[in-house]
Amino acid sequence: MKVAIAIDSFKGSLGSIEAGNAAAEGVLRAAPGAECAVRPLADGGEGTVEALASGLGGKLREVEVTGPAGKRVVAVYGIVGETAVMEMAQAAGITLVSGADRNPLRTTTRGVGEMIMDAIGRGCRRFVVGIGGSATNDAGAGMLQALGFGLLDAAGNAIAPGGAALSSVSRIVRDGAHPALKECVFRIACDVTNPLCGERGASAVYGPQKGATPEMVAALDAALAHFAAVSSGDPDWPGSGAAGGLGFAFREFLGAELKSGAEIVLEETRFEEVVRDADLVITGEGRLDSQTVMGKAPVGVARMAKKYGKKVLAFSGCVTRDAGIVNRHGIDAFFPILREVTTLEEALDKGNAAANLAATTEQAVRCFLLGAH
Amino acid sequence: MKVAIAIDSFKGSLGSIEAGNAAAEGVLRAAPGAECAVRPLADGGEGTVEALASGLGGKLREVEVTGPAGKRVVAVYGIVGETAVMEMAQAAGITLVSGADRNPLRTTTRGVGEMIMDAIGRGCRRFVVGIGGSATNDAGAGMLQALGFGLLDAAGNAIAPGGAALSSVSRIVRDGAHPALKECVFRIACDVTNPLCGERGASAVYGPQKGATPEMVAALDAALAHFAAVSSGDPDWPGSGAAGGLGFAFREFLGAELKSGAEIVLEETRFEEVVRDADLVITGEGRLDSQTVMGKAPVGVARMAKKYGKKVLAFSGCVTRDAGIVNRHGIDAFFPILREVTTLEEALDKGNAAANLAATTEQAVRCFLLGAH
Which residues contact A367 (CB under 8 A, 6 or more apart)? Predict the structure, then answer.
């Protein structure tokens, strides 16, 4: 029996590869001769760098960059061959700022650009960037400036950091951009389709959760529209509004492809090659619920598996009452790994979680094989 | 698909039939055309009366009897046709006494005899009696007296209640016993094989947990040996020492058959008839652990299923780390029904437990069928 395994991280507990290895242990207990192919899984959000770096034999790199509010922060990204794997939130995430610093008029994506420059300097020419969880609403202006693009006001000076200053941009100079960018390929993991501006735009939909008042939303929306007009980009392109407009900058200035995070991860790990050969596909994530069907990684795995008519089991730290809907999205059966009444702390403990996942997988695979024989 | 379902009660939560019905609901969600036969399951201990009475269309009866320490208690037993289903603990159980009343020199099984007399009066001629959890060490003397047997001392007076008084018995008069007893059949659910006396006997092994000091154990052991000698019974017969020697009285005076509780229950419910026809057998209990293999009901179900080469799934409120051993005793795969981190109180709530059991069964049966197709 060949088993293809790709499980998203159990947030706060097992990493993707740790979870995959625990499941593989359970499979082998139930079917000693089985061949298990464990691949990393992530959805472009938290855990993506760790999953891809550890699962594809890469390494992690720490780099100090400008944080969203201007203070220096340490960002971690992964290097796998010539591919850099990044989460924008490492450099400009909402969790990096609090209080008065949560001000999308001023927060900047400059650190994202600095991270990319660091990777270019280390030879990377392919970039996989997850762009969820931003603190910013600057349409990627800070990133572009860090990469060498000139965003100039009427007096010819570089505009200040933050979304508000975009209202003063009058000219964009692309010549100063790092020359290696021409050779670079950017794949952006992005699960939203919002346009840059308007009532479904970055400022209106995501601004408030980053600290924007209604007045700030109006100002930011106008500023981003002005920036789009000056740059001659298409602000209506789906995904332009992702991460405070960072999607727009990636597409218009860096020729990036925007795609669902789960899909990009599955492509990067070449999961399709092991699925095609598998008798059983195993996936999962920390929590299985009705949101799982909204583009999250396990359903991405299930969709790929069903392309080849494969059978899919899922495992999770917990499942909610409404999780049954995943059965209609390619997950043939799913099992929470809890074994006893326990505290959240004990449940999240890595040792417990790995043992529980292995035990649950063992019994589920026994059940699966029972039907087969 | 035909599914035979017999699940022991989830103690403190679902009764046996409630659990069986919840599992059946899950089966039907996974396999809408399935035929589910739900039967009660119990091991002769707590829950046996409720399971058999509710599962076999019988009724419960409350009767006031003499408790183990002499105070009146209300005992519940079941009547199914002409069969009475009883737990000795209802009339003489350890949970009925506390403090100084936990004195096996004095505690009596008289109430057990009174319960039997009540059932005889209501036309019962078959008795299924579970004899776990006793507070007594009187070799069933109290029960025998309630049924009309004369246990007389040298002066021709009835001996006092309790195990200590057995040392003074000098003559046993069987003529006074209720005449209907000759027509009665007694099936005793008993999972221990201790002899009446000696170091593996009732007094030495079980006396201390009923409140006996080492001196009391010695006195009781001698008293029971004396009683056995006067009655000409066989004190070495396996199970004689069950329930403080009640096993001895049932066998020697009432011609009872002693048998594993799970086996008796399976016979009473004619579970074998539905197992023979089934494509899948489902069992379970509140807690699945390494003790489950020690003659507990789910393993009894599994053993019967394997006689016919049937496949067996088990479900439980929780499972322990060492539960995997049940896989070597006929339970092909097992699943705890917990879905989320929760408190014990929420987990035991009947509504939650039934919903969780149904959801877990649904996914397990989906998994089973997945392997089959």
Answer: B313, B332, B333, B335, B364, B367, B368, B371
Q: Which two tokens stand for residue B42?
A: 């119990």
B336 touches chain A (CB under 8 A): yes
Q: Where are the beta strands (DSSP E) in B294-352?
A: 312-319, 333-336
Q: Which residue has the tokens 């001659």?
A: A232
- Using pLDDT thresholds of 50, 70 and 90, give the confidence band for residue B295: confident
Using alpha carbons only, give the angle B290, B324, B26 rounded to the nearest 5 degrees.
100
Helices (H), A269-296: 271-277
For residue B170, which phi and psi values (nearest 5 degrees)?
-125, -15
Q: Supply the pTM of this predicted model.
A: 0.88
pLDDT, tens digit, 9 for 90 and up, residues A161-196 = 999 999 999 999 999 999 999 999 999 999 899 999
Q: What is the ipTM of this complex?
A: 0.85
Contacts of A318 in chain B (CB under 8 A): 339-341
Do A213 and A185 form a contact (C-beta atoms < 8 A)? no
Per-residue tokens: B234: 């066989």
- Whose tokens are 């003397």? That residue is B141
Helix B350-372 × helix A350-372 angle, to 10°:
50
The span from the CA of A233 to the CA of A236, in Å, is 9
Per-residue pLDDT reduced to its tens digit, A112-135: 999 999 999 999 999 999 998 999
| Interatomic CA distance for residues B285 and B282, integer angstroms | 11
Chain A positions touching B327 (Cβ under 8 A) are 366
Using CB atoms within 10 A of its CB, is residue A373 exposed (0-12), middle (13-18) or buried (19+)? exposed
- Token pair 């049924």: residue: B147
Indicate the length of chain B as a whole number.
Answer: 373
Rounded Cα–Cα distance for residues B296 and B280 (Å): 20
- Give which of B321, B332, B340 to mutate to test A binding, by max A Cβ within 10 Å: B340
Residue B245 DSSP class = G
Q: What angle do CA B29, A318, A285 make, to 5 degrees?
A: 100
Cα gap B43→B57, rounded to integer Å: 19
CA–CA gap between residue B176 and residue B113 (Å, rounded): 14
Q: How many helices (H) and strands (E) does chain A have?
A: 13, 13
Measure Cα distances from A270 to A151, A244, A265, A337, B201 in Å: 38, 30, 8, 27, 67
